[in-house]
Structures are given as structure tokens and as C-alpha cells.
Amino acid sequence: MKAPSNLQARQKCRGLSLVEITLVIGLMLTLAGIVTYSVSSMTDWRKGRDASEKLRAVYLAQKSFLADQPSKSYATFTNEELIPYLPGRPGAMPTQTGKNNETLTINVQMMPPVLKFGSSNYDPSGSATDGLWDVGSL
């Protein structure tokens, strides 16, 4: 019986070297990091769009309320007055959480309305016309 040649022995023992395994694992970790970063950015964007939709609903409620009571000043609006004018008649003013899950309130005494965190306006996008975290350009 003939002994296997060196080439035949190498073909039978195929596998991955340590360098190849390290490169594959490194590539997988890099791709996982990119996906994680993209998903967190999408979550922030989704929260911003949700906030702008809620602010638009309140803005439309303000306009409808003013159509019914034109002598009323928007600086004196209360949440209770606007709730019946909200789309879908939700029974309560919409609520929103910020990027870091902080509780935000809607200031209805401004037109268009703004999100408030504590005593300051909340708009992490930095633009009042981008349609995220604000009513956007109307």
C-alpha cells in the first residue's frame, strides 16, 4: 500500500487557521456594532417623528378651538379645553418621552405648541423646521 503524499494529507486536514478565525470574528463584531448604532439612531428618529405627530395633533386642536372661540387667546389655553378637539377624542393630552426616556409635557399656551422638559423647550434635533421634536414647517 502506498503512503499518502504530503498534498493528499493536507487536503484531508482542511480547516481554518487562527488568523482566519480571528478575522471572521472581528468582521462579525464590526458588523454587529454598525447594526446596533443604526438601530439606536432609528429609535431616536422614530421618537422624534412620534413627538412631531402628537404636536401636530395638538396644533390642529388649537386651531379648531380658536375657530369655535375666536375671541380666546392661545396664551390662556388649558389642556382640558383642547382635549375635546384632539383627533380621535383620546380623553387626555398626549404624552411623550425624550431621547433618554425623560417625561416631556406639551406646552399648549404657545402656538404652535412645543415640548417642555422642566422649564425649557425640548428639541434635541436643534432645528425648528425639520419636523422632528417639533411641529415643523407648516
Structure, explained:
- The model has no long low-confidence stretch (mean pLDDT 86).
- This protein has helices at 6-12, 18-68, 79-82, and strands at 96-97, 103-107, 114-117, 120-121.
- The chain has one domain.
- Strand 1 (96-97) and strand 2 form a beta hairpin.
- The protein has 138 residues and is of the alpha+beta class.
- The longest helix is centred in the N-terminal third of the chain and has 51 residues, at 18-68.
- 45% of the residues lie in helices and 9% in strands.
- It contains three helices and four strands, in the order H-H-H-E-E-E-E.
- Strands 1-2-3-4 form a four-stranded antiparallel β-sheet, covered by helices on one side.
Quick description:
Helix content is 45%, strand content 9%.
How many distinct folded domains?
A: 1
Q: Over all CA atoms, what is the radius of gyration?
A: 29 Å
Mean pLDDT: 86
**H/E series:** HHHEEEE
Strand tally, please?
A: 4
Biggest sheet strand order reads 1-2-3-4
Largest sheet: 4 strands, antiparallel
